[in-house]
Amino acid sequence: MKTAALSLIAATLAAVFPVAATAQTPEPAQGKRPNIVVILGDDLGYADLGAFGSEIKTPNIDALAREGMRFTNFYTHATSSPTRATLLTGIDTHRNGLGNMDEWTAPNQRGADGYEGYLKLGIPTLPQLLKDAGYHTYMVGKWHLGKSPELIPRARGFERDFSLLDGAGSYWDMTNFTAAAPQSVFTEDGRYLNKLPDDYYATKTYTDKMISFIDANRADGKPFFAYVAHQAPHDPFHLPKEWRNRHVGEYDKGWDAVRQARLKRQIELGILPAGTELSERMWFVPDPVVLAPASRAILGKKMELYAGMVENLDHHVGRLVDHLKKIGEYDNTIFVVFGDNGAEGTDLFKMIAGSPGSRDFLFGAINWSQTHPNAWGDPGSYVGYGPMWAQVSMTPFSQYKSWTAEGGIRNALIVSGPPVKRMKGSINHGVLHVADIMPTMLEVAGASYPKADQDKKTPALMGKSWVPLLAGKTESPRTEQDYLAWEIFGNRAVRQGEWKIRWQYKPFGSESWELYNLASDPAERKNLAAANPDKLKAMTSLWESYARENNVILPSRSVFETLEDQLPKRVSDDKGYPPLIYKQQFVPPKDMVAEPAP
Fold first, then answer.
1. Nearest Cα to Cα of residue 536 among 509, 561, 511, 515
2. For the segment 205-238, what is each residue's pLDDT rounded down to a tens digit?
3. pTM for this prediction
4. Fewer CB within 10 A of the terminal residue: the chain, N end or C end?
């Protein structure tokens, strides 16, 4: 019975993956081809690494930056699964099946081509093509691109895997978020797991597994592609006790002071130009100086946990790097390190659990009941850090994950290894996109992409190779005429050269097109739409072309459709206003103080 079932699955996979047979396997490149390691942080912010201005200690990732290059204008998508789908296919989300996240597909998008909610069948993937070209292909961590047998990592080109198929969950066990789907789903080497290893902790276990995969095939001398898709530092903030108290009290000073310090370091490092301003503090976030010390301390503890998670992530990145050095593979490995979208400022758990009395609220109260601060980080606790700290993670940019402001879509990127021919530690300001990883790695590996079909079953790649850029032959893979575009949940944006337009739901946006010059205003403080109607018209024309060519279906429902009613009215952020709450106690001159007359 089992044999018959496995045969049926194998036949199904063969039927839905005709693409692999059409790809030409190139002749091996001269010399040994480099290994490829992609390290993806989940909700890791632009400013969360030491190499990008953070006070968080990330010596192992910083070392990769010193050995390679940092990129300051690298874009992903505003949310997780669209970024991952683009990373693995090199084509736009509205064509690869993640036109919207599966969790939030709108009624008018259901059943539409490009909105399947999983990585679309028949589209070539990076691991498939690298495998065809003679690479071992390994994955650990979060998948978030489909759960049925034909959609899991093994079916999409990964030879070995240990994967969380869901978008998030506990770091300690299989606890998921809702009563409808109470248990997270994992696979290992194409089989669904009924339990996790006894000593399971996500970040550690993923690293252990990847090291074991690499070691298992070392003897054959073939290069490998390792996709290390960490959960960390996505909430809930779970981490071992010894990692929780590395920043005690450090964040009690509040988010404004930490943002200012990070921006100062970014300018000193050359990440941002002198004179760069911080984006406005979100209007519904208080100035920390008006909060009571106890409130600042409890909110600061959330950021302490987050910092610990980032440092733990860095520790395990270091374990992998050290292992590659030990086995003699480090010098022949290209590393690509980045976060999948902006930092998470939304209370995801509140959004999922809903209101008291609901099914999911009860599920949360039972399964995520460890609410005391002393238990934060333990199994059964759920901590996120909120919009105030998400803005810190995205210093100096505006907003955060799920929005098409820079804080939702711009990320720190580090690349090191043999293809990097520039001076070690270089910083580049060219405009890059996550879709570029596919053509870059195919070129590095001496692999090829199948010829695009006229009927678009095999779409043309949208990305551009970084190989000339890494070699110092150009400063950007894009010209001033090239443009990038985004749409998720109805929020949308276009960047061309130094100009950007964005349309966002109220109250984060104006529900009209806004225009910004990112060269002079990376924080998107000055909307130039009214002053530059011709530029706005030209940019909106690019959006219309993009939407038409990529089958963009604007959603009839948005996850943010009621947000304007839930938040206070949007107002500008003017320092020291209103004066009333900042006025200090008046203290008269000492020589004029007297006792009352008898």
1. 515
2. 999 999 999 999 999 999 999 999 999 999 999 9
3. 0.93
4. C
